Structures are given as C-alpha cells and as structure tokens.
Amino acid sequence: MKILKQKFWRAFFLIFTLLFIAGGVFVWMFGPKIYWRVKNFTRGNLVWGAPDKEIRHSDNDIPVVVTTDDAYTLQTVVMLTSLFMNANPETFYKVDVLVTDEFSPTNKNKILSLQDTYKNCDIEFINMRDCFKNAFLSKHFSEVVYYRLRIPTVLEARKKCIYMDVDIVVKGDLTSLYNCDMGDNWLAGVADAGRSTFYENEAEAKRKEEDRKSMDLASRDQYINSGVLVFNLEAIRQHDVENKFKTFLQTHRDPIQHDQSTINSVAYGHIFPLKLECNVQMYMFSVKGYGEDKKKYSLLFSEAEWRDAWKNPLVMHFAGEKPWNDPTAYGIEEWWKVARQTPCWVEILQKFRTTK
C-alpha cells in the first residue's frame, strides 16, 4: 500500500510538472495574443470625438504636427530639438503637439522649454479629448497613433502641413519637403520598407497578401510609411477624406497597422511618393533588419537613392529598434548626440542609461 501511494504521488507530481511546463510554454507562445484579444474585445467601437483646434498660426511659418503622450515626452523633446537646431536661419516652425486629455503639465513644460533656447519656433498643445477611445490597439501602441487622422479638423485654417512621428531625428531643414509639388494628391509619403514584394518564403508572401486583403487595399504598390507625411489639407477637405478615415475604422475594427492601414487604404491612388531620404526607416540598415539587402529593397528604391539616403538622410526614422532602449539600433549615435543637447539630458540619461 505504501509503495502504491509513493507511485501515485510520483505520478501526480510528474504530471503536475509537465502540465506546469506546458502551461508556461503556452503562455509564452500565445499569451500576448490572448491578452490583446481580451483587451480589444470591446475595441473597434471607437469614439470619433471632438478635438480642440489650432489657435495661433501665420502664413509665413511651416506647420509641423506631432502626436505624443506622457510615455514619449522625452523622445518628443529629442525629436523637436533636432528639428529646431537643424533649421535654416530664415525658417520658422509652428509646431502643434496633439496630446491626450490627461497629458501632464510637467511634461508639457519640458517641451515648451525648448522655446527658451530656440527662437525659430512656436509650440502649441492641442487637446484631443476623447478622440479614438476604444480604437483597436496592439503591442506598445496607444490611441495617440490615430490622432494624425484628425489633422484636417485640428488645423482647420491650414492648406498644408507636415506630420512626423517622435521616434525621429531631423537632419536638415524641412522647407523643401513642405514645398514639394504634390499636385492634387491628398498625401505625400515614403514607401514603407515592409511593402517590398521580395519575400523570403511562401509563408511571408501569403501573410502579406492576407494583410492586403484585410485592409481592402487594391495593391501595395503605393503603400507608404505613416511616420512622415505631407498633408494636402485643402484636397483632403474637398474630398471629405477625414470622414472616409472614420468609415474605414468603423468597418475595419482591427486594422493590422492602425493609422497606417487606414491611410493607405483610404488614400490609395491619391498618394505622392517622396524620396527615401525624407523618411529613412533605420531598421532597413540594421543587423536585426536586412542590412544592405538590395534584393529586399531594390524593387522600392534605386541603388543611387539607397546610397544617398544612407549617407545623407533628411529624416532618420527609428521605426524598428529604438535607440533609447536597444543598443543595436542602427544610427543610435545620432539620437544620443541630439539627446545630449536637450534641456532634459540628465533625465534622459537616468531613464535610458542602460542603453548608452
């Protein structure tokens, strides 16, 4: 009897251990997906909202729009510092920062402090209120990623503007980008590196095709990265594009790339292509990306354009690895060089010192 009990408990603990290990593997493999499915169960029924609108503007400035929240305040300071310090003497930027209703006054002051150093700018905060509440989210994203879709309303008196993500270092003056002749097109942007039609295997090709269909996208041949955009606000209003964005998000409750899916699907056929230098997606050159893989990107960019953008980027966009938390990020030195020149350098160093 004693032997049977020993065998029973051994079997019990063995089965328990195996189940525990299997459960751990299951959570590791599928936990993130389950988490986001549960979290997004009620999402998709988004609130379109009524944001505040720009108050101050001049016909002689270049309007630049960024979106941020408390978690990305320091990155915003670095991005704007690079914008102001590399402007031509005659260039003046009006920057509208679209923020959440809960955006911290302390963080607002960190960004505003840049005006003490740089006199070629005017910074205004726009409260987006409850816009995009319940919108679909994944990974590290927040509803802030959708704010750019409301720019035509927020900048109601503007004819044109530049939008930029905050995981960016600007290397030069943006006047030529702002003045690009985009004709009657609604938007201008750079080809997204992920749109290349060179696939490593059939599984990748199949996944990309499924993504295209999920977006109701006619083709990926115009697919752009939404991190740097020039908005033709007059044309967008004329064609009621903002309402088309709203309809897309109401009918596609889980857009795979959030705002980027929305923009590319709705604006297809009305997108002006910008040169790679205007939005150099740095992971293209990184070890974790593809390095100088001409096969991957030769269908998107000529070798001359590739080389010029690599050596002389106008905008460095850290769309993949982030230089503040990944020491392997390509171009990391440029981000930290700008960070040292910000009024928040000590705080940046303390918060992100594990990477540099």
Structure description:
The protein is 39% helix and 14% strand. It has 356 residues and is an alpha/beta fold. The chain has 2 domains: 1-34; 62-352, Spore Coat Polysaccharide Biosynthesis Protein SpsA, Chain A (Alpha-Beta Complex). Helix 2 links the parallel strand 1 and strand 2. Helix 9 (241-251) packs across helix 10 (258-266). The longest helix is centred in the first third of the chain and has 38 residues, at 2-39. The chain is globular, with a radius of gyration of 23 Å.
Give the quaternary arrangement of the chains. Answer: single chain
Query: Structural class, please?
Result: alpha/beta
Low-confidence stretches: none
**In percent terms, what proportion of residues is strand?**
5-15%
- Report the biggest beta sheet as strand number plus sense, adding barrel if it closes: 7 strands, mixed
Helical fraction? 25-40%
| Average of per-residue pLDDT values | 86
Strand runs, count? 10
Assigned CATH superfamily of the largest domain? Spore Coat Polysaccharide Biosynthesis Protein SpsA, Chain A
Order of helices and strands: HEHEHHEHEEHEHEHHHEEHHEHH
Radius of gyration based on Cα positions: 23 Å
How far from one another are the termini?
64 Å
CATH architecture annotation name of the largest domain? Alpha-Beta Complex
Number of domains: 2
How are the strands of the largest sheet arranged?
3-2-1-4-7-6-8
